[in-house]
């Protein structure tokens, strides 16, 4: 697999860091998850479980190894530093300053491992006026202006369905780590990566910054191109209180749809720009789509060259034939479902290891690997370095 031979020490918790390293594990990297002694990774206990394992945990930690170590102890810190010395990548996601107090900061790790790729994931980055602010995904979306344009049907900010800052930091972070590893092959030099969730949000909204940059003002959300300004790029309710979407604004789609609906007179209103000039078509669509159920509209649109889709719930999406054909929902031998691998290489494709590690399952193995003898390991157990396992 693409990352076979790469070793990763993951100090992060919750979603951004664990998902980043999960993608690396799916493609062959050995990922060692260092969990805190006060309960381990929080997402072990978040949400529904299958047996003793949460769905959240198994879909962010499958195929990894787990050690539970108290970094506030000298022995625990030494164990972690020895592991970092043999790893290619170290990921941490504490609030800036915390990792320094734990003795696992970049400079400490670099002293043992000059070629290490070390990534720090945080809400606001390692500098700037917000550096000490506590925040998770939602707060960074608020600061970055994303919530101001993520409006519900009532016109008020709504919590996004996807943790955008977390997910973007994971994926952009993976790109950064891989770039650094690629560069290291030529220079033999490691690097430090400073990833801010707020930064990733700003980087991912270039298509809606027009009014912000040209007019120095906030956009009018309902008039923007991808936020409902176009009649042909919008969400509409159906007779059974479900929803469908029209998802492309090219004029040939508008001509085909409005001709079949016997309203070719409305075609000119679909021309750019987005905004109030589109209202006659929007009003017609609102009235029209309320006349049939979602299923009836799915049948009606079959074979029509229009970008149309029913709004499915997550269970329906998990059963969608396209999702299944692309192996984005897969089942293990016991029939339990898992999220698949989105990066699909033709050569050396990723492989899912469905097993998620028990908390601290690899404590002894890793301690032995980095040179602790049996007496030292027993002493560490007695002192609580490995928690209360």
Q: Could you give a quick summary of the protein structure above?
A:
By secondary structure, the protein is of the alpha/beta class. The chain has helices spanning 16-26, 55-61, 74-85, 98-101, 106-112, 137-143, 146-149, 164-187, 197-203, 210-214, 225-229, 251-260, 279-289, 294-301, 314-318, 321-325, 363-369, 374-383, and strands spanning 7-10, 30-35, 49-50, 53-54, 65-68, 89-92, 117-122, 191-196, 233-237, 243-247, 308-310, 329-331, 337-339. It folds into two domains: 7-203 and 346-383, 3-Layer(aba) Sandwich (Rossmann fold), CATH 3.40.50; 221-237 and 243-310.
Chain-wise SSE layout:
Blueprint (H helix, E strand, L loop, with lengths): L6 E4 L5 H11 L3 E6 L13 E2 L2 E2 H7 L3 E4 L5 H12 L3 E4 L5 H4 L4 H7 L4 E6 L14 H7 L2 H4 L14 H24 L3 E6 H7 L6 H5 L10 H5 L3 E5 L5 E5 L3 H10 L18 H11 L4 H8 L6 E3 L3 H5 L2 H5 L3 E3 L5 E3 L23 H7 L4 H10 L6
Overview of this protein structure:
This protein has 389 residues and is an alpha/beta fold. It has two domains: 7-203 and 346-383, Crotonobetainyl-coa:carnitine coa-transferase, domain 1 (Rossmann fold, 3-Layer(aba) Sandwich); 221-237 and 243-310. The protein has helices at residues 16-26, 55-61, 74-85, 98-101, 106-112, 137-143, 146-149, 164-187, 197-203, 210-214, 225-229, 251-260, 279-289, 294-301, 314-318, 321-325, 363-369, 374-383, and strands at 7-10, 30-35, 49-50, 53-54, 65-68, 89-92, 117-122, 191-196, 233-237, 243-247, 308-310, 329-331, 337-339. It has a six-stranded parallel sheet, sandwiched between helices. The protein has a three-stranded antiparallel sheet with strand order 9-10-11. Strand 1 (7-10), helix 1 and strand 2 form a beta-alpha-beta unit. Helix 3 (74-85) packs across helix 5 (106-112) and helix 8 (164-187) crosses helix 9. The longest helix is centred in the middle third of the chain and has 24 residues, at 164-187. The protein is elongated, with a radius of gyration of 25 Å. The model has no long low-confidence stretch (mean pLDDT 97).
